[in-house]
Amino acid sequence: MTRFLSGLMLALIAAAGFLTLSGGKAAAQYAIQPGDQLQIEVLEDSSLNRGTLVLPDGTITFPLVGTIRAAGQSVSQVRAVITRKLASNFANEPNVFVTVARLADKGPLVPAAPDTMRIYIMGEVNQAGLIEVDPSTTLLQALAQAGGFTRFGAQKRVQLRRTQGGKTRVYTYNYKTGAGISGATVLSEGDVIVVPERGLFE
């Protein structure tokens, strides 16, 4: 009986190890998709830690790195790119961890309710991603709904990207001085607001 129980325990341990290894391989081989939510952490600087949404064009934006392509890549490939681009900012190569925190919804697209519209906010805001807003929402109100700027945000170079008739126009808004388009500009369905990373002396 004792020999049987020992054998059973060994079999269970081996099976658990196999499942863990298989799950690890599956995670490592997963190709990131637009709409996935990534969690990126830098061991040496916790202020860089954040979640970021993979935009419809397949890109993500990260402080000190800029915009990089994530869709179609594995988490290991994205981690390698971020590590390489961050390296010059640290005495030693930083330890970067990238995980897929949430998968994109693969179900049928549900249209926004008639009294709301969908816009994207990306870059240096505290809550980047796809949000639904009232049709009368302004640029400044959308930035507030996204939690405001991070400490890396280029507040003088906020971009509003609007596509009409197959052409995309980029408008610039200066939050500090009010220059460029107005913060009271009413947004349209599908608008993309981009807050770039500020320069060293901004």
TrEMBL record:
<dbReference type="InterPro" id="IPR049712">
    <property type="entry name" value="Poly_export"/>
</dbReference>
<feature type="domain" description="Polysaccharide export protein N-terminal">
    <location>
        <begin position="26"/>
        <end position="100"/>
    </location>
</feature>
<dbReference type="InterPro" id="IPR019554">
    <property type="entry name" value="Soluble_ligand-bd"/>
</dbReference>
<dbReference type="Pfam" id="PF02563">
    <property type="entry name" value="Poly_export"/>
</dbReference>
<protein>
    <submittedName>
        <fullName>Polysaccharide export outer membrane protein</fullName>
    </submittedName>
</protein>
<dbReference type="Pfam" id="PF10531">
    <property type="entry name" value="SLBB"/>
</dbReference>
<dbReference type="GO" id="GO:0015159">
    <property type="term" value="F:polysaccharide transmembrane transporter activity"/>
</dbReference>
<dbReference type="InterPro" id="IPR003715">
    <property type="entry name" value="Poly_export_N"/>
</dbReference>
<keyword id="KW-0732">Signal</keyword>
<feature type="signal peptide">
    <location>
        <begin position="1"/>
        <end position="27"/>
    </location>
</feature>
<feature type="domain" description="Soluble ligand binding">
    <location>
        <begin position="119"/>
        <end position="168"/>
    </location>
</feature>
